[in-house]
Every structure is written in C-alpha cells, then in structure tokens.
Design goal:
The protein has one helix and two strands; from the N terminus they run E-H-E. By secondary structure, it is of the alpha+beta class.
C-alpha cells in the first residue's frame, strides 16, 4: 500500500531525482499541492521546510544479520 493509494498527495525526493525536480517537489509542498514528502536520506543535511507540521524520521539498520 502506498501513500497515494491512501488518498494522500505524496511525492518522493531521492538521490536519483534531478535537482530541478527536487526543487519542484519542495515548491509543490510549500504551496500546499502535496501533503507528504518522502525523502530517504536526501533531506538529512537540513532543508528548511517551514510548511511542515510534522516530521517522521526513520532510520534503517545497516548492520548485516549474522
């Protein structure tokens, strides 16, 4: 199940997305066009998103199972 199938206006920002496309997603979020941005590790460096009411930070483990 995805966020969009739940009826949310959502986009993702990731390292393979062109910089212009990243800016467009952030602009759409700022203007209220999008409700959710999923950004695995791309926004780690401190992007100002004053339009956000809530941030959920989830970190996956990188340790190998033995």
């Amino acid at each position: 199940m995805t966020l969009t199938t739940l009826g949310l206006r959502a986009e993702s920002v990731h390292s393979r997305l062109a910089m212009a496309d990243r800016r467009e997603v952030l602009r759409r979020f700022a203007e209220g066009d999008l409700q959710v941005i999923s950004a695995p590790r791309v926004l780690d460096e401190g992007v100002d998103v004053p339009e956000a009411d809530l941030a959920v930070i989830i970190g996956a483990s990188r340790s190998a199972a033995r």
